Amino acid sequence: MTLLTVLIARIEPCQMGTYVLWARTKHRTWRRIAEDLCVSTPTVLLWAGCAQLRHHLHLPTTHTIEELH
User: Fold this and answer.
1) DSSP state, residue 5
2) Residue 66: pLDDT band by 50, 70, 90 thresholds?
3) Count of C-beta atoms within a 10 Å radius of residue 50
4) Distance separating alpha carbons of residues 50 and 42, to the nearest angstrom
5) Percent with pLDDT over 70 in the chain
6) For residues 66 and 14, what is the distance between their CA atoms, to the nearest angstrom?
7) Domain map of the chain by residue range?
8) Degrees (nearest 5) of the Cα angle 30, 66, 38?
9) Quick check: 67 and 38 in contact, CB under 8 A?
10) What is the pLDDT of residues 19-36, one digit of tens each?
11) 63 vs 45: CA distance, rounded Å
12) What pLDDT sits at residue 68?
């Protein structure tokens, strides 16, 4: 586990959402983002507690990576 992964694992959901937005601007894949966020499987990402992020991305709280492509 990298230091970045450890730091991200400890942040709040809204900060996690901010990381996702940053990572997408850097053209990171959803699979890589899921790995960075310590999600056990990249199939499902959870955006709990960050209405602003969900509104910005027009996404529900829970969605699969396939829906994000």
Assistant:
1) H
2) very low
3) 19
4) 19
5) 26
6) 22
7) 3-68
8) 40
9) no
10) 777 888 888 887 777 777
11) 6
12) 47
